[in-house]
Amino acid sequence: MADTSFDVIIIGAGPGGYVTAIRAAQLGLKTAVVEKAYFGGICNNWGCIPTKALLRSAEVYHLMQHAKDYGLAAEKISFDLQAVVKRSRGVVKRLNDGVGYLFNKNKVTVIWGEATLDAPGKLTVKKSAVEAPKGALGEGTYQAKHIIVATGARPRVLPGLEPDKKLVWTYFEAMVPDKMPGSLLVVGSGAIGIEFASFFRTMGAEVTVVEVLPQILPVEDAEISKFAHKAFEKQGIRILTNPTVTKLE
To answer: Which of 11, 81, 99, 119 lies at 20 to 30 Å from 142 by C-alpha?
Structure first.
């Protein structure tokens, strides 16, 4: 019978959760982590890491188009979008496998499913739609002296711009497009929005970025934002600051 009692249970195996779980185990605490979809969270799977992989492919494509600037020659340059996406997902899988290896190495118990807090120190885990990794515990009731909630990020849904996975995307759909869009409107110019704008523009799409605040990359230094604004416009990205998105037709 599986052990259901721990010193600490962490809900969520993203960058906050998995690091906490590993460190807690290293300090001698009996540790479990609950996850329902993938190790590494949004950063590893749908944010920081796969976007960089996409951007690297776009960078190489751009350099090939300007090979003569480096004294080189390249002809009939093209890209296979599905292969670009496949490479990005492959990078993600290697990192996922790495987190799983670290859990196993540090004797962190993995509980696979969706957790609900029932009372102080108690939670119930229901079955996940995603297949569990080998050796993970599943549905049931668990208890711990300490429960840490590290459930991470979700795409923000704007009224009137509810994602339908076809015309309106979140970063989930933007990360794995089945074809290159002819044009793209990016609402928001934070790091993720600008990364997608840069990738799709480099790969040939017409891109417009709208930012409700006076500058793009609003959390960055104003001088950096101004420099980036000019660079992205030179790249062919249309940027609109201070607008309001009112409706979708």
So the answer is: 99
Q: Say yes or no: do domains 1-153 and 171-241 share a fold.
A: yes
| Reported pTM | 0.89
Q: Phi and psi dihedrals of 53, rounded to 5?
A: -65, -40
For the chain, give every domain's residue range: 1-153, 171-241
The band of 1, judged by pLDDT with boundaries at 50, 70 and 90, is low
Which CATH number, 3.50.50.60, 3.20.10.10, 2.40.30.20, 3.10.50.40, labels domain 171-241?
A: 3.50.50.60
For the stretch 72-104, pLDDT in tens is 999 999 999 999 999 999 999 999 999 999 999
Q: Where are the alpha helices (DSSP H) in the chain?
A: 15-26, 41-46, 48-65, 81-105, 171-175, 191-202, 222-234
- Radius of gyration (C-alpha) of the chain in whole angstroms: 22
* CATH 3.40.50.10860 matches 1-153: no
Q: 105, 161, 159, 115: which is closest to 137 by C-alpha?
A: 115
**Helix 191-202 vs helix 222-234: angle between axes, to the nearest 10 degrees?**
20
Please, are residues 181 and 200 in contact by the beta-carbon 8 Å criterion?
yes
pLDDT digits (tens, 9 = 90+) for 164-187: 999 999 999 999 999 999 999 999
